[in-house]
Predict the structure.
Amino acid sequence: MGLIASLARPGGNITGISFFNPELSAKRLELLKETVPRTRQVAVLLNPENLINGPILQAMDITARSMKIKLQKFEVRGSNEFENAFSVMTKRRVDGVTIVEDPMLNNNARAIAALAAKKQTPSTGGLEFAEAGGLMAYGVNIPELWRRSAVFIDKILKGTKPADLPVEQPTKFELVINIKTAKQIGLTIPQSVLFRADKVIK
């Protein structure tokens, strides 16, 4: 998005922590395919008003083409549009749905997970998504990132210029599987995926 010059030397008046959103979204697609091998068409639920969608969709498209998966975008601006989006997904016979991380979508994770389960659609998203009832989630520990941000604030308040603080990248990623949801939609999670899960919700 051009906000910084580089991770090591951000320049200007901005620094912080990267969420790895494009890469995480692509990885979720890989995990969905590994969990449901028959996957050929995947719905991408996103908020069109989020500027990060461009890089995310680009990363997902590269991964999708390598796995011979067709992506279908479903844009929603609010919770009142979820029901219609999932109805269209059903008509188009998508094999799964991945939720692009976004404040509005994150806040409605439980409603989205419930609709995906109701439509018998395997679903994936950020870490809080599996906790909310989604099939699986892969991502970084957001509360831990908030704690790291306090370190930046402390240094800046003590006089360090943001331009001199490298942008940090998370090093720990977690995979969460919701077995309860898997049973609800009649899906058996492959052992190869279960063995790699950091948390299994039963």
In short: The mean pLDDT is 95. DSSP finds nine helices and seven strands in the chain. The beta strands are 41-46, 70-75, 96-99, 123-125, 136-140, 173-178, 199-201.
